[in-house]
Amino acid sequence: MTTRLLLILLFGLSCPSLAFSTFAGTKSTSRHFGAIQSKLFIRGGDQAIPEQAAKVVPPPVETDEGSKQSKLCFAAVTGPMISSLSSFGRFYATSLEARPILTKSTTAGLIFALSDFLAQRFEADKEKASKTNWTRLLASAVVGFAYFGPAAHTWYEQIFRLLPGTSLVSTLQKAALGQMIFGPIFTCIFFASALFQSGNFSVSNWFNKIKSDLPGAWVAGLGFWPLVDLISYSMIAPQWIPLFVNMCSLVW
Fold it and tell me: Which of 140, 149, 193, 227 has the fewest CB neighbours in a 10 Å radius?
């Protein structure tokens, strides 16, 4: 009798049918209780939620054929490009080790010529003209090959010898020296090249152009070249810096 009263108290509120059968003294109590244990139902009000429903079953993974095809197309397009860049990198590294100055001079000359060609195309679009100034383009290539390549090789080699390391202080010092020495000297050489192209070169004209145009050119470059120097001196190996700077000149 005591057992029946306990069962009534435990399950009477949540399972009225079980309470009634127990109080009536029928043998269905054990069957009801056994069914509840076997099914593991958790009753709350009018709802019955199986305990198995609490387990989260992950949805089946569906194969996205469209995504696979996109990845295959992307790999087909970028694969040859990456392979070509990798081959060029190996060739350039070998050339740098064997002939550092000639390699840097050649790449500087080619990139300077390309930079001037793109600049002329941009100017032509603005002025509705289509003629290319080959003399100007050739002069830019000569400046890159004869001056910037050898000068950059010497400058970066010496600046890392004077200020070794890539700490923040060392990087800032190298960048400051580059903006105060190497950058202005290169700008002066570029002014001389422009005067030669126009047929107006003389020492006095060169000095006058430096005096009038160098401060403005230097200030204009402060928003770009110091950042290039910070990246160069802190993240790039010294022998690769001239190539990186040449590529940045395409943007400039």
Answer: 227
